[in-house]
Amino acid sequence: MLSQLPASRPLRILLCQGESPRARELVEYLEQDGYEVECVRGGNGTCLAAALRFQPHVLVVEENSIRLSIVKLCRTLQRSEETQHLPVVACVGDVSPDRVERFEQAGVTEILAAPTTPSLIVHCMKRLEQGGALREPGSKAGGISLWASERAAFEACLRQAEEREELSVCYQPRVDAATGDLLGMECLVRWNHPQFGCVPPDQFIPLAEETGLINSIGEWVLREACTQAEAWRQRGHTDLRVSVNLSAIQFRDSDLYETVQRALRDTGLPAEWLELEVTESILMGDPSETALTLERLKSLGLHVSIDDFGTGYSSLSYLKRFPIDTLKIDRSFVDGITSDPDDAAIATAIVLMGHSLRLRVVGEGVETTDQQTLLHLLGCDEIQGYLISPPIPAPAFEQHFLNRGQKVA
Q1: Domain that includes residue 123, residue range
Q2: Helix (H) or strand (E) holding 244
Q3: What strands lie across the sheet with 36-40, from one edge to the other?
Q4: Are 378 and 351 within 8 A, CB to CB?
Q5: Please, which residues have CB within 8 angstroms of residue 236's CB and are 6 or more apart in sequence?
Q6: What's the pTM?
Q7: Which CATH number does the domain housing residue 238 bear?
Q8: How far apart are CA 58 and CA 103, in angstroms?
Q9: pLDDT tens digits for 104-122?
Q10: Is residue 356 part of a domain?
């Protein structure tokens, strides 16, 4: 049996990330999530001394922020009986297969593609804990090798998924809240593995972000969406905008502008019929850099929407700084809009805020006619959700929505 963490004790995380505003932000984020955190800078000796003193459940080290070799650090930890089983999460810039294998052979438990985000670190911690990889300091790591090998196998499968054509895309319609006219569709990636079956996006997307695979997967999804949208345009469906999600990792990629520009050029889709969706949390990072990135993307002529809006802390003055076109109300508020006065109030405020900035507002996750009716009464411009349709493959989308006319709800 593994020595699992007592429910009453907080998880202790030792960060070897140096002193920087980003490190301080990460510490604050982790502490707000209930973790006990200590941050150190230095070499192998410093990290070992801190681990012996602090007795963490896990060590998180960022390769580029301190002068040490992660492989040597693992060997240093393994020489001490008290730290030899300490799980190590390495944030590295180069996640090529050969380098990943070298880290795994050295004993690294988890490898994340740097630069990472506080939310991804938290997701990683929760997954490690649920997988039994985190135990009380000093307990033996009987289950780590099995957990790590299963995780490594899952990651290897994901790396091969694109070339094996296991990835596919589905489309979910977006319709006019007042008239029911079809206005566009959101493109969503799916992974159908021959052994695992249909892998839920909330399982493989975070892994893709952690490992850096999200950039290649994201570019593939973007090109698929643009190709399909242009094919439908050529068949006479000229007024449909396709939306594609961008993760935080993709958004920070220095090649993002060129990737989008290349997809539009190669597929022939006019930029005005592409919408890129970014989450509200992306806006909360570096506002100045975010604004520059969005302005550059907007210069192509495409649209930008804020997904999952309402879960962060954006204000009217904050939103004014960004060149956006649409707000998408987070589905958690839509879910309770007919039963929870607070959710209804938040949805109303988002609609008013969006319209005051001349933005369109979309209600996501609509599953009942009562939700649809109330969103329309509140002034919501578009709706999207299972009431209209779940995400479906392109042939089914074409049959159900394009071949029978533009009015679908």
Answers
A1: 12-157
A2: strand 241-245
A3: 36-40, 12-16, 58-62, 88-92, 110-113
A4: yes
A5: none
A6: 0.69
A7: 3.20.20.450
A8: 16
A9: 778 888 888 777 778 778 8
A10: yes
